[in-house]
Amino acid sequence: MDTTLHFTPSSPLSLRPGAVLTLARPHDGYTRVQVDAGRIWLTQSGDAGDHFLAAGEDWLLCGAGEVVIECDGAETARVQVWHAGVRPAAAHSRVSPARAAPPAPSAWAGRCAPGHSG
């Protein structure tokens, strides 16, 4: 059976300095956090490390768990969160332009393992 990643974007999120956001990750998919402006601190369940991302950087999260994102700096951070779940390709042969916006999943090959990205 052919499968493909189906991306669903969130609304753009703005985090003021010191603001914290906690997100739950779906059990069967991927979550991409993209920083459009500012700087964030990111930590996730299953990963003892802290990760700092600046404008133009992104982070790929895999599997179930929580991710905590905090604005890290004096400037408001703008963040976009993309969720992708694996579904049969025939189930959505027409993908809207908004859902096709992130880089192709092949660009992420080898970047993602539970509790690790990069």
Furnish the topology, listing elements before pairings.
Blueprint: E1 3-9, E2 13-15, E3 20-25, E4 29-37, E5 39-44, E6 47-54, E7 58-62, E8 65-71, E9 77-88, E10 112-113, E11 116-117
Antiparallel strand pairs: 1-9, 2-9, 3-8, 4-7, 4-9, 5-6, 5-8, 10-11
Task: Characterize the structure shown.
Strand 10 (112-113) and strand 11 form a beta hairpin. Residues 88-110 and 113-118 have low confidence and may be disordered. The chain has strands spanning 3-9, 13-15, 20-25, 29-37, 39-44, 47-54, 58-62, 65-71, 77-88, 112-113, 116-117. The chain contains no helices and eleven strands. The radius of gyration is 14 Å and the shape is globular. Strands 1, 2, 4, 7 and 9 form a five-stranded antiparallel β-sheet that branches. A four-stranded antiparallel β-sheet has the order 3-8-5-6, with no helix packed on it. It has a two-stranded antiparallel ribbon with strand order 10-11. It has a single domain (3-91), classed as Sandwich (Jelly Rolls), CATH 2.60.120.10. The two termini are 28 Å apart. The chain is an all-beta fold and 118 residues long.
